[in-house]
Amino acid sequence: MMKTNKTQDFWGNNNEVYRKIIISGPPSTSVKEIVTRLNDLSPLRNATEILDNGCGTGLGMRYLIDHYEKELPDSVRLVASDMSGGMIQLVKEHKEKNKSNKFWRRLETGLWKVEDMSVVEDDSFSHIIASLVMFFPPDAKHALKESYRVLRPDGVIGMSSFKGNGWWELVDIGRKAKEGAPHRKPLPENWSSRDLIESNLKSVGFRDIKIAEIDSILEVKDVKKLAEFLVKSGNPRTAYIFEDFTDSEKKIACDLIIKHVEETKKIPAEFKSTLLVSVAKK
């Protein structure tokens, strides 16, 4: 197991909800597109070390092993890391359940932020998967610099961000439960613009940049779980809105979201999002 650095766990408190709700839709689409495009840019049959950075529930590593097991070299080193101990626990549980698989059996885990990989040596990885995570740090370029640093020469990164998010608008409904609650901030411009993403990648040294716009649908059968995820998960993109809510106000917020979805959509409810999927080489 790799070294870790301690960090506050925003995600772990609701890791089970996250696993059940967000396994489909954009996260699933994202890892599929990233891994496919990484393989096009630098074939996985030549991979030496692969990092799933900001791995969450481990969707990136699951897709990689499920779909590219026959192409991966027997000697490839696999690492899954996240800032959330709760998410890493889910990955470890999946690893234990699949220990008969040689790749899962030797998977390493790490606990760190994408913008602070100080425990990782330079030139450590040939491939990095960074699905729906790079837009969270306040300093986008520093996170990219860290990825560039830990990649081997000619190493490749695949990452994704939202150009549009179909379910975040539900936060606007939930915030009505408390007068004076903060408004939802717009998507970070650095990560919702193709031109700015390309500019940021180039500024830290990346080349052979390719960016694709991909639509994805999140289908939700259990609207209550989605509402609780949005209001209670501690997601840094929404937590500041609900952090001063009492438990009863959070319940009202969830009820408002549920009512809105049930009145405006058929169940299972569909939410369309648009992803920007980027790959680049060091």
Short synopsis of the structure:
The chain contains twelve helices and seven strands. It is of the alpha/beta class.
Describe the protein's architecture and organization.
The protein has 282 residues and is of the alpha/beta class. The protein has a domain at 12-166 and 187-217 and 271-281: Vaccinia Virus protein VP39 (Rossmann fold), CATH 3.40.50.150. 40% of the residues lie in helices and 22% in strands. The protein has twelve helices and seven strands. It has helices at 15-21, 26-41, 59-68, 85-97, 102-105, 140-150, 170-174, 189-192, 194-203, 223-232, 239-242, 247-264; strands at residues 49-53, 77-82, 108-111, 125-130, 151-164, 207-220, 269-281. The protein has a seven-stranded mixed beta sheet with strand order 3-2-1-4-5-7-6. Helix 6 (140-150) links the parallel strand 4 and strand 5. Helix 2 crosses helix 3 (59-68) and helix 10 (223-232) crosses helix 12 (247-264). The longest helix is centred in the C-terminal third of the chain and has 18 residues, at 247-264. It is globular, with a radius of gyration of 19 Å. Residues 1-7 have low confidence and may be disordered. InterPro entries: Methyltransf_25, SAM-dependent_MTases_sf. This is Methyltransferase domain-containing protein. It comes from Saccharomyces mikatae IFO 1815.
